[in-house]
Design a protein that fits this description.
This protein is an alpha/beta fold. The protein has 2 domains: 59 residues, DNA polymerase, domain 1 (Orthogonal Bundle), CATH 1.10.150; 282 residues, TIM Barrel. It contains 12 helices and 14 strands. Strands 3-4-5-6-9-10-11-12-13-14 form a 10-stranded mixed beta sheet, sandwiched between helices. Helix 1 crosses helix 2, helix 4 crosses helix 5 and helix 10 runs parallel beside helix 11. It is elongated, with a radius of gyration of 21 Å.
Length: 347
């Protein structure tokens, strides 16, 4: 049987209609699942016992098992969930000035093997289903302040996996997240982060959605980017920038370049000038990150002087730039680290 959260509101309404049930029950079910934080069919008390029984006979209502939980001194919370097949995925909740951002995974592992990232070190296993993507946000909501009024306000698909490599499931999850009958999170509060899967970016341009696009750039020339991110050999910078410009033009949304500063790799003055050239003259901004070291890898962050100099170089050229404050460093907050540790323990 399929988990009920794999279905859109429209699909669920059609199923109910086929059962000779009022279609408005679909909205009631959605409300209980996505807004009232129900964890089972039994909790949907405004449906008849007969309908709840029929739902239980035709759908599953699975749960992610919380395998590990860690909380940082900066209040960042990291969740390691065990899936029914024994695989693990990570999610992160980042609080900041009245907003609560959930960072969700879209795949078990990652096939793109970026050299500085922990996500691909255990290899790629499979895509997540729609319900597995949504359940991360739902579980985080249930655990926020003991189930009070606080809830996730922003979603970023920046966890383990490449969202555009699991395109259909991620887009279906986004539509439910965005729906006023679902999690009711505005499109502009939802961000997809990609390593640069150009066909996916082009497809996203045609969706007519106002979601944010973030591109993991991390280098401003093909030589360095191909060394750090093998995907660049298939989708080089010239083609990637063209696709990003088209997305910005079609959506009217600014594209963000994520750029992790790594000592002696990508933060020289020349790297900065090349980054300016890529970002100038269109709706682009740069989000600098200080590299979060992974024990199994040799990369290290630059010192504060280098970080400041790189940021000011970009800023002085008139490019919108921010320096993201490091979060969760004391709990191995970077993508894939907690899952990697669990995998190593199970080896």
């Amino acid at each position: 049987m399929t988990d009920i959260r794999n279905y859109s509101l429209e699909d669920l309404a059609k199923i109910l209609k086929g059962w000779q049930e009022p279609e408005y029950h679909a909205k009631q079910i959605f409300s209980w699942i996505y807004q009232k934080r129900a964890g089972s069919f039994e909790e949907i008390t405004n449906l008849s016992l007969a309908l709840r029984k029929k739902l239980k006979e035709n759908f599953t209502f699975r749960k992610l098992e919380l395998a590990r939980f860690r909380e940082s001194v900066d209040a960042t919370k990291k969740f390691l969930f065990r899936l029914e097949d024994g695989n693990f995925i990570e999610s992160v909740m980042i609080p900041a000035e009245g907003r609560f951002t959930a960072c969700l995974s879209t795949q078990v592992g990652c096939k793109y093997s970026c050299k500085f990232c922990a996500s691909g070190l255990l290899g790629f296993k499979r895509n997540l289903e729609v319900w597995e993507i949504l359940s991360q946000a739902l579980e985080i909501n249930r655990r926020m302040q003991g189930g009070g009024e606080e809830r996730v306000t922003h979603i970023v698909f920046m966890g383990t996996g490449e969202p555009l490599d699991n395109y259909d499931n991620v887009l279906e999850a986004i539509r439910i997240i965005n729906s006023k009958d679902g999690l009711n999170i505005g499109a502009r509060r939802i961000t997809i982060s990609t390593a640069g899967v150009i066909p996916g970016i082009n497809k996203l341009s045609r969706e007519g959605l106002q979601i944010e696009l973030s591109v993991s750039l991390h280098a401003s020339n093909d030589t360095t980017r191909s060394r750090l991110m093998p995907i660049n050999k298939k989708y080089p910078l010239k083609d990637l920038i063209y696709a990003c410009k088209k997305y910005a033009s079609d959506s009217g949304r600014q594209v963000t370049f994520e750029y992790a500063l790594i000592r002696d790799v990508n933060c020289s003055s020349r790297d900065g000038r090349d980054l300016v050239k890529l970002s100038r003259g269109w709706l682009a901004k740069v989000n600098l990150l200080v590299y979060n070291p992974v024990k199994e890898l040799s990369f290290q962050p630059p010192d504060s002087k280098e970080i400041s100099a790189f940021k000011h170089l970009i800023q002085n050229e008139g490019i919108p730039v921010t320096l993201r404050k490091p979060r969760g460093q004391d709990i191995e907050g970077a993508c894939g680290q907690l899952r990697l540790r669990q995998g190593s323990n199970n080896a």
